[in-house]
Amino acid sequence: MTNHIALFEPLMPANTGNIARTCAGTDTALHLIKPLGFSTDDAHLKRAGLDYWDKVDITYHDNLPAFMAAIPANDELFLVSKFAQKTYVDPDYTNADHDYWFLFGKETTGLPEPFMRQHPDQAIRIPQDDRHIRALNLSNSAAIVIYEVMRQQQFNHLEQTHWYPNDKLK
């Protein structure tokens, strides 16, 4: 079972770099749906992703239909949107027979409304107080969702790091 994070037309290199780092740390595939609002050679992207960029399994898709065509029929796709009815903790992400895909919208406008209307049962949200903010940061949202998925999957394939109080930090 592989987990996938997909970004629809991301605009901010720092968000994409941070998400790439999260993908590297969780062995999650990253999918970028064009057009991108930056070059993947951009210094800001490399700085945000540090030296993890080459450790991420990245696939580029020319557009949303091309991305959708790349998802195998037996896999599960979730659309992450603040307009969803279900929360991100509601689904069961433990079926080892298929992969899980999480599609996040553009930082400024989210996912296209017509697309969302075609797939309402696949939408999940992270609860937030809309009185104070429009939306959570994209990279924070991706981390929240993927770590819930990993928690349900018993953090499968992730090494445990041990820190002992007598160790000196370097």
TrEMBL record:
* Gene3D superfamilies referenced in this protein's UniProt entry, alphabetically: 3.40.1280.10
- Tell me where it resides: Cytoplasm
tRNA/rRNA methyltransferase SpoU type domain boundaries: 4-147
**InterPro entries per the record?**
Alpha/beta_knot_MTases (IPR029028), SpoU_MeTrfase (IPR001537), TrmL (IPR016914), tRNA_m1G_MTases_N (IPR029026)
Task: Read off the SUPFAM superfamilies from this record.
Answer: alpha/beta knot (SSF75217)
Q: Which domain of life is it from?
A: Bacteria
According to the UniProt entry, the coiled-coil residues are none
State a single Pfam family of this protein.
SpoU_methylase
Residue sites binding S-adenosyl-L-methionine per the record: V80, G105, I126
Which protein family is it in? Belongs to the class IV-like SAM-binding methyltransferase superfamily. RNA methyltransferase TrmH family. TrmL subfamily.
Xref: PANTHER family = TRNA (CYTIDINE(34)-2'-O)-METHYLTRANSFERASE
**What is this protein's record name?**
Putative tRNA (cytidine(34)-2'-O)-methyltransferase
Origin organism of this chain? Furfurilactobacillus curtus
- Give the gene name: cspR
